[in-house]
Every structure is written in structure tokens, then in C-alpha cells.
Amino acid sequence: MRLLFCKSDRKFFPTWMLVEFQSVCCTHASSEPVRCLSGWIITPCEPALRQIQRTMGRSRSSSGVPTVVVGLAALLFSNVLIYLYLASLYQSDVQLVSSHIGCRPQHFKMATMKNCTPWLQCSQINAEVRKLKLIGQGAIKKVYLAEWRTQKVALSKLSSLDYLEDFLHGLSMVQALQGPHVVQLVGFCLEEHTLVTEHHPHGSLLNLDVVLAQEQHQQHNTWQTRLRLAMDYVSILHYLHNSPAGRRVMCDSNSLEKTLSQFLLTNDFHLVVNDLDALPEVDASRGLLVKCGHRELTGDFVAPEQLWPFSDSGKPFSDDLMPEYDEKTDIWKIPDVTWFLMGRVPGGDLAHFHLFQIHDQCKKEDPTLRPSAVDVLKVYKSVYSSMVRDSVGFRDML
Q1: Mapping DSSP to helix (H, G, I), strand (E, B) and coil, where does residue 118 land?
Q2: Do the beta carbons of residue 23 and residue 78 sit within 8 Å?
């Protein structure tokens, strides 16, 4: 048995002792949890010494049976603690982004609001939403930073009637898919082709490295934060592939930059999908497949089945002859997006190593051999839990 000093994330506890006992105890004097590592138990020094003395005394008088029983019980209890602790890491983070969870359908509640409010209608948008400045513009809509009752919101307006169908499709998807993975709808006005959603100051995922480089956010520039973002991304794909509105494919993702622009980075460093203007449905049982646009796609980022299959023969592209495909095109892109998300932080290379096998499966030429989004997510969660457990152990042994 070895006795060592222990520290928490915030301060040293020189009056505490780390006792090798093949178990885990995660409490300290204030009854708040302290991260501990498997194979050790943390107790105050004096009580620990008295407990050790009592245990050793019992072992001398009873041939060691109580020591074995206590050790086995402590080991079993430690495994339960570790499981609950690691399982809570990701779940607690997911809850942070879901400020509107608990509201009735067609209601919203932003982080600083106490009560849920019905979606804003045309009259309320015109009277209460004040446009501040243009913050984004695409082919389909212009996006303005706006204010509603001291709350910052994003006001989107249709750019051209040529894209009215796409705009209405995006609005219908935002409505149908409301939940923790989708940007929160605040209101809309069909007559004026406007849409109001929750504003996220960090902007799109394209800004990730810039945001994390800022002094006030540098503490979040870790493999833990970045791998959680990757899990959010895969979780969103899983949700879209099994959504209340059917199996949906992210068609507006023909390059890494375009894909990243579809997601918003929340204040607590999670992701929500924002742009749902190109989200067609697939259903193999009904023979319903998709083609993402009517132009020829090129490059390594898109899946092989999205490329013109007759390019080697010199046959010119024809949309009529282009084969259709399904949601497995989204799976092909996961490794490239995760590579960007992980950046160049300590521990990132180890994460890539652990994810190599599942990423290799994502890149199978035959889409039927690629895993589903939920299969990828299971591996991501397992890798995250394993790396957290190992890093906590190494840190606490220092």
C-alpha cells in the first residue's frame, strides 16, 4: 500500500491522502465531486490512517478475510462510479445547448429567458424585431443581426424570389426538426419571407480556430472540446438520418468550407445545424434517392458515388444519366470534418489514432460498406470516455 498526496483541478489538498486500494472515491470535505483515477481511493489522512490500522488489525485477527471482502466491494463500487462519471461527462454538456427543451411545440426560450414564448408572427416581427446590421449573405437569403426585447436574434430575409422554394423548404425543416441539434426557431413571416432564429455570436463553424485563439477562449482549445464538437457533428448527422421528417441528407455540403458553414458554434462550445435549405429525403424502401444539385461535382471531399461515373471515358456530364445516392454520402465526409475540428492540439494525434479504424470504414468506396452515423457515434463516445479516463488518471498521479 502506497500513500501519496492528491490534488483536484483547482487546488492541492495536503491533508488528503491517495491510498492504493483498487477502488475510487470521489468526495472531498465540501461534499463536491473530485475527479479520481481507477485503482485509488481518496480519504482524509487521519481517518485513512485509522481505517488502515483497523483493517490491518482485523486482518491479523481473522486471517485476512475482511480485507479481501472490503477490497472486492470497493473495486465493484469503483467501477460503478467510473461508469456513472464518464457517462455524465457528455450528457451534461449536451444539456447546456438545449435551452428550449421543455417548451411546448411552437414555443421558444433562449438562454436568458425565464419562460417559453410562442413563435413570433408577422405583426410581432414587424413591430418588435429591430434590424441592426448585415452579418451574412448567400444565394438564398440575407442574414441580419437583430434585437427582440433586448435579446439578440438572427433575422433572415429571402434574397430573391428565384429561391423561394429553397427558402420555404429550409423553413419547413427548421420547424419540423426543432430540438437540441437544430438552431432554435424564434418566429417567421411567410408573407414577407422572413425567418427569425436564435443568434450565436461565435458564428459558423468556419470560425472555430479564430474563436479558440482568442485569449478569453484559449482554455477551451483542447482535444476534449474539439472531440466533443466532432461528437456533436456526428450526433447531428444521426438525428438527420433518423429524423421526425424522415431520413434526410445534407446536400449543401459539397466542400469542407460549405459543410462547416451549415453549423453554428454555441457559446458553450457545442454545435447546432443552421442551414437546412437543401435537405432532401431518402427512403430505400420506396426507391427514393437523391442527387445533390444538377451540376457535376468534383474533388475528393464528395463521396465517390457523387462523381460523374463516365468521366474516364470522356463522356460529357448529363444530369439525366447521373445515378442517385443516399445518406451514406454524409458518412464519407465525417473523417475530413473531424480532421478539421481536432486542429493541432496536444492529444489530437492520439484521438486520430483511436479513430483510424472507424474513419477507414467511412471511406469505403462501396457506400453499403460504410457504417451508419450511430455506429460512428458509438466509437467516438467510447474513444472520448477512454481518453478522459486515461488523462484524469495521469493528471492525478502527478
Answers
A1: strand
A2: yes
